[in-house]
């Protein structure tokens, strides 16, 4: 079985680029069929052009409501035979109808050890609470933000002089490794 991936991004897209490169280099038996961004100025889309991967920009303002917007995303994923959606810095909350259509087929990466520090700025939250470890989590997406079943996690130690930026960089290195590890795990389930 080959995983046909659809990726949703909003910003820099470093995890998306990492996944595309791993597929192109045959590190995983998967193919990125389409990357969709809700941000026409996404740095990730600009980086993607060099990798010759199909992409689309879908803007919520172009639709009557969020349901119509998500129906367009659903249509694009189905047209491209996507069987797993990877959220990689997608900054919108997916609605119930979309989640039901793709139940068990959407994964997200979050820069904390869930269930701790859900939502925005988890690195700042970790430093403010003076925890000694943080990391990243990949989980299945459900209706509650950063709450779905955890697939895997990676841990980083927080040093005494840690800053939000330095912690973000440490965690991002682990995110890139973890996403590929998890995609391999998912592939093994389908074998």
Give an overview of the whole structure:
Helix content is 38%, strand content 23%. The chain has six helices and seven strands; from the N terminus they run βαβαβαβαβαββα. A seven-stranded mixed β-sheet has the order 3-2-1-4-5-6-7, with helices on both faces. The longest helix has 27 residues, at 164-190. The protein is globular, with a radius of gyration of 16 Å. The relative contact order is 0.16. The model has no long low-confidence stretch (mean pLDDT 95).
Number of distinct helices: 6
Would you tell me the structural class of the helices and strands? alpha/beta
What proportion of the residues is helical, as a percent range?
A: 25-40%
Characterize the biggest β-sheet. 7 strands, mixed
Order of helices and strands: EHEHEHEHEHEEH
Rg over CA atoms, rounded to whole Å, is 16 Å
* Number of β-strand runs: 7
Outline the secondary-structure elements.
Blueprint: E1 3-9, H1 14-24, E2 30-37, H2 43-49, E3 55-57, H3 66-79, E4 84-87, H4 96-101, E5 106-110, H5 122-128, E6 133-140, E7 150-157, H6 164-190
Parallel strand pairs: 1-2, 1-4, 2-3, 4-5
Antiparallel strand pairs: 5-6, 6-7
Summarize the structure.
38% of the residues lie in helices and 23% in strands. With 191 residues, the chain is an alpha/beta fold. Helix 1 (14-24) runs parallel beside helix 6 (164-190).
């Amino acid at each position: 079985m080959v995983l046909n991936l659809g990726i949703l991004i909003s910003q820099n897209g470093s995890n998306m680029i990492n996944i595309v490169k791993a597929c192109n280099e045959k590190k995983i038996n998967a193919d990125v069929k389409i990357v969709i961004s809700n941000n026409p100025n996404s740095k990730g889309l600009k980086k993607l052009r060099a990798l010759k991967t199909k992409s689309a920009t879908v803007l919520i303002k172009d639709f009557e409501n969020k349901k119509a917007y998500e129906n367009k995303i659903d249509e694009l994923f189905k047209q491209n035979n996507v069987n797993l959606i990877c959220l990689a810095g997608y900054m919108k909350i997916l609605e119930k109808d979309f989640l039901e259509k793709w139940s068990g087929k959407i994964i997200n990466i979050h820069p904390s050890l869930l269930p701790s520090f859900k939502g925005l700025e988890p690195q700042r939250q970790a430093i403010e609470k003076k925890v000694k470890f943080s990391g990243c989590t990949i989980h299945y997406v459900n209706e509650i933000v950063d709450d779905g079943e955890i697939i895997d996690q990676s841990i980083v130690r927080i040093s005494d002089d840690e800053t939000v930026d330095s912690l973000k960089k440490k965690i991002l290195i682990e995110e890139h490794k973890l996403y590929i590890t998890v995609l391999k795990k998912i592939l093994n389930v389908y074998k």
